[in-house]
């Protein structure tokens, strides 16, 4: 049964590939790749931004163990470098002391008499044999010291490089954390703006009140003007008759004084 299902699946895939080849020819793989990319991108775009921010934070937190491991490795390498430096210093001191001994013993080779060394006397042949052994050991020690010095130089370079990578990793993590916080703050700002734009106010009631007040103002203004016009007509209609025997001119002269009489207008002289 399983073999039949596998055969059907393979046959279906072959038929599908053949159909694509017939429809698109040699461009069929490109169409398939483009369709796959579009579907994948569409699925990725459908993921909420909050979820992606949380995922980015988790990935950033996953860097912490790696940074701690690197810090420990750098510290261990620094300790090794310090120990190697101390070892090189000690071996160089021993070589210097052995070198001075070789020079001191070398001075006795040309002497015919036996050579006294630490209370004992040795023949020239014995001293020569001892000098040869000492010289071989000195050369071997100097070679080893040279190799260790080179090792120390390489280890220092490795420690320096590891320390720089560690600092770069810490700085990159901080930059990424700042960017994530900035993205989250921007997202919250966008959400707040969208929420504000979705809030709608029914101001139709306010508009109706404004219209009513405007109509009342107009009505009262009309009433005021009509009242003013009626009062003006009433004043004109109520004219009081003056007593015919009353000397109004004399009363005005008594109140304001007699006006000065104007003389005759001067005549123009003939030129």
In the CATH hierarchy, the architecture of the domain at 60-194 is: Orthogonal Bundle
The CATH topology of the domain at 60-194 is Helix Hairpins
Overall strand count: 2
The tally of helices reads 7
SSE class: mainly alpha
Strand adjacency order, main sheet: 1-2
Give me the Rg, rounded: 58 Å
Mean pLDDT score = 74
Shape: elongated
Strand content: under 5%
- Ranges where pLDDT stays below 50 over 5 or more residues in a row are none
Q: Which CATH top level class of the domain at 60-194 fits?
A: Mainly Alpha
Q: What oligomeric assembly is this protein in?
A: single chain
Termini separation comes to 150 Å
Report the major sheet.
Answer: 2 strands, antiparallel
Approximate helicity band: over 70%
Q: Helix and strand succession?
A: HHHHEEHHH
Keywords:
Helix Hairpins; two-stranded antiparallel sheet; 7 helices; 271 residues; single chain; elongated; mainly alpha
């Amino acid at each position: 049964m399983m073999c039949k299902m596998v055969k059907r699946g393979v046959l279906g895939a072959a038929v599908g590939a053949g159909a694509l080849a017939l429809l698109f020819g040699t461009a069929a793989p490109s169409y398939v790749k483009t369709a796959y990319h579009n579907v994948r991108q569409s699925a990725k775009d459908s993921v909420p931004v909050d979820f992606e921010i949380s995922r980015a934070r988790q990935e950033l937190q996953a860097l912490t163990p790696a940074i701690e491991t690197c810090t420990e490795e750098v510290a261990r390498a620094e300790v090794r470098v310090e120990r190697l430096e101390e070892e090189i210093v000690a071996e160089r001191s021993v070589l210097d002391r052995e070198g001075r001994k070789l020079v001191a013993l070398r001075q006795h080779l040309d002497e015919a008499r036996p050579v006294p060394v630490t209370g004992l006397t040795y023949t020239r042949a014995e001293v020569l044999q001892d000098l040869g052994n000492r010289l071989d050991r000195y050369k071997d020690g100097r070679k080893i010291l040279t190799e260790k010095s080179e090792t120390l130089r390489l280890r220092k370079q490795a420690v320096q490089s590891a320390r720089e990578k560690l600092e770069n990793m810490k700085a990159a993590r901080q930059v990424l954390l700042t960017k994530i916080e900035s993205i989250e703050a921007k997202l919250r700002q966008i959400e707040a703006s969208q929420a504000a734009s979705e809030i709608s106010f029914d101001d139709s009631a306010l508009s109706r009140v404004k219209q009513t007040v405007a109509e009342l103002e107009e009505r009262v203004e009309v009433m005021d003007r009509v009242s003013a016009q009626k009062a003006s007509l009433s004043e004109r209609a109520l004219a009081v008759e003056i007593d015919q025997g009353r000397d109004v001119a004399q009363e005005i002269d008594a109140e304001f004084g007699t006006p000065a009489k104007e003389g005759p207008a001067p005549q123009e002289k003939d030129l």
